[in-house]
C-alpha cells in the first residue's frame, strides 16, 4: 500500500474546493456588491434632481461594466491578502524559535539555550500551567531538532510542515520523491478541474494562457524543490518587498509556493469574469443602442395609442353634445350642472375637506339639545 496517500488526495480536494468556492464567491460578490456600488456611485456623483441612467441604456451598461471590473479586481486583491494573512498567522519553525532564515547550527543552539532558561518546565513560575509549559518546550525542542538536521531542514523549507509526518523518509532523495509525486498529483488534478470548468462553460477565455501559467508554476515548484538554494524570486524580490511591510516576516519557499498557487487559481477565476466584460465593448455598446431603439419604439407606440384614445374621447364627447349644439341656454345649463358635479365630486372625494366640514358641523351642533335639529 502507498505510504503517503493522504497528501495527493488532500491536494486534489483543496484544489477542487478552492476553485468551486472561489467561483461561487466571485458570483456572490458580483451579484451583491456591483448593484450596490452602482447605486452608491449614482447617489454621490449625480446631483439630486438630475436624471439617472436607466437600466438597459448605453450609459448604464458602461457604468455597470466598469464597476463590475473594479469589484472583481478588489475581490482578487482581497483573496491574495487573505492567503498572505493565513500564511503569516500559521508562522513557521524559524519564527517559533525566533531566528532568521539564514541562521546556522551555532545560532540555533545558542537561541535554544536562551529559550530553555526562560521556558523550561522546571524554571517557570509555579503559577504557570505546567502542562502548557511542557508542550511549548517540546515544540521548541522540535524546532531545534529539525533546523539543525540538514536533511529535515531542506525538506521543511521546500515542502512545509507536512514533512514532519513522513516517518520513513530519511534522505533527501526520499523527500524529493514524495514531493515530486505530490506535485504531479496536484497539477494533474488542477488541470483536470480547470478543464472540467471550461467544458461546463464557466472558464472559457484564454485557455492556452491558463494552462501555460499552470505549467510555468509547476516548473517553478520543481525548481524550488530540487535547488539547494532559495529561489531568487524569493530572496531578491518577494522577501525584500515583504520587509517593507511592518511586522511582515520573510517567507520560506513552501510559503511562497502556497501563495502563488492561490494567486494563480484566483486570477484564473477573476479573469474569466473580467474577460467577457473586456472582450467586445463594441458588442455591449451595440446591445445598449439596440435597447435604446427598442425603448424609443415602445414610447412612440405608447404615445400614438394615447393620442388615438384622446381623439376617440373627443369624438364621443362631441357626439354626446350634438343635441345641444344650437341651444345656447341648454349649453349654459349643461356647463353649470357639470361644474357643480365636478365641485361636489371633488369635495366629497377629498378626505381633508370632508374632515373639515365634519368638524365645522360638529362645532355648530355643540350645545344644541337632542332632537332640536330635527324640530327645526
UniProtKB/TrEMBL annotation:
Q: Which Gene3D superfamilies match?
A: DnaJ domain
Q: Does the keyword Membrane apply?
A: yes
| Pfam families in alphabetical order | DnaJ
Q: Output the CDD domains linked to this UniProt entry.
A: DnaJ
What UniProt keywords are attached to this protein's entry?
A: Membrane, Transmembrane, Transmembrane helix
InterPro entries documented for this protein: DnaJ_domain, J_dom_sf
**Which SUPFAM superfamilies does the record cross-reference, listed alphabetically?**
Chaperone J-domain
Q: Which residues cross the membrane?
A: 24-46, 67-83, 184-203
Q: Does the keyword Cytoplasm apply?
A: no
Q: Which PROSITE patterns match?
A: DNAJ_2
Ranges for domain J: 92-160
Query: Which protein, by its recorded name, is this?
Result: J domain-containing protein
Q: Which organism is it from?
A: Aureobasidium uvarum
Amino acid at each position: 500500500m502507498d505510504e503517503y496517500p493522504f497528501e495527493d488526495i488532500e491536494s486534489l480536494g483543496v484544489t477542487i474546493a478552492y476553485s468551486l468556492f472561489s467561483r461561487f464567491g466571485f458570483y456572490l460578490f458580483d451579484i451583491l456588491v456591483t448593484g450596490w456600488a452602482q447605486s452608491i456611485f449614482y447617489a454621490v456623483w449625480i446631483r439630486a434632481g438630475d436624471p439617472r441612467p436607466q437600466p438597459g441604456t448605453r450609459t448604464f451598461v458602461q457604468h455597470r461594466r466598469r464597476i463590475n471590473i473594479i469589484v472583481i479586481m478588489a475581490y482578487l486583491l482581497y483573496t491574495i491578502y487573505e492567503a498572505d494573512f493565513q500564511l503569516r498567522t500559521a508562522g513557521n519553525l524559524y519564527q517559533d524559535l525566533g531566528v532568521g532564515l539564514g541562521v546556522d547550527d551555532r545560532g540555533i543552539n545558542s537561541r535554544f539555550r536562551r529559550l530553555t532558561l526562560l521556558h523550561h518546565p522546571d524554571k517557570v513560575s509555579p503559577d504557570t500551567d505546567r502542562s502548557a509549559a511542557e508542550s511549548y518546550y517540546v515544540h521548541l525542542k522540535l524546532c531545534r531538532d529539525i533546523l539543525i538536521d540538514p536533511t529535515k531542514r531542506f525538506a521543511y523549507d521546500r515542502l512545509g510542515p507536512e514533512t514532519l509526518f513522513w516517518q520513513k523518509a530519511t534522505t533527501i532523495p526520499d523527500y524529493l520523491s514524495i514531493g515530486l509525486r505530490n506535485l504531479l498529483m496536484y497539477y494533474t488534478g488542477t488541470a483536470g478541474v480547470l478543464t472540467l470548468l471550461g467544458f461546463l462553460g464557466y472558464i472559457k477565455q484564454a485557455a492556452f494562457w491558463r494552462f501555460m501559467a499552470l505549467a510555468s508554476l509547476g516548473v517553478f515548484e520543481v525548481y524550488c524543490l530540487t535547488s539547494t538554494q532559495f529561489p531568487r524570486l524569493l530572496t531578491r524580490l518577494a522577501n525584500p518587498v515583504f520587509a517593507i511591510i511592518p511586522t511582515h516576516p520573510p517567507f520560506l519557499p513552501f510559503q511562497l509556493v502556497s501563495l502563488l498557487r492561490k494567486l494563480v487559481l484566483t486570477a484564473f477565476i477573476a479573469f474569466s469574469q473580467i474577460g467577457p466584460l473586456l472582450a467586445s465593448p463594441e458588442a455591449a455598446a451595440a446591445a445598449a443602442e439596440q435597447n435604446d431603439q427598442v425603448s424609443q419604439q415602445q414610447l412612440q407606440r405608447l404615445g400614438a395609442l394615447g393620442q388615438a384614445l384622446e381623439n376617440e374621447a373627443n369624438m364621443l364627447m362631441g357626439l354626446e353634445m350634438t343635441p345641444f349644439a344650437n341651444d345656447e341656454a341648454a349649453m349654459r345649463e349643461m356647463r353649470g350642472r357639470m361644474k357643480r358635479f365636478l365641485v361636489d365630486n371633488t369635495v366629497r372625494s377629498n378626505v381633508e375637506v370632508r374632515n373639515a366640514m365634519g368638524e365645522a358641523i360638529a362645532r355648530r351642533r355643540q350645545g344644541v339639545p337632542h332632537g332640536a335639529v330635527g324640530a327645526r
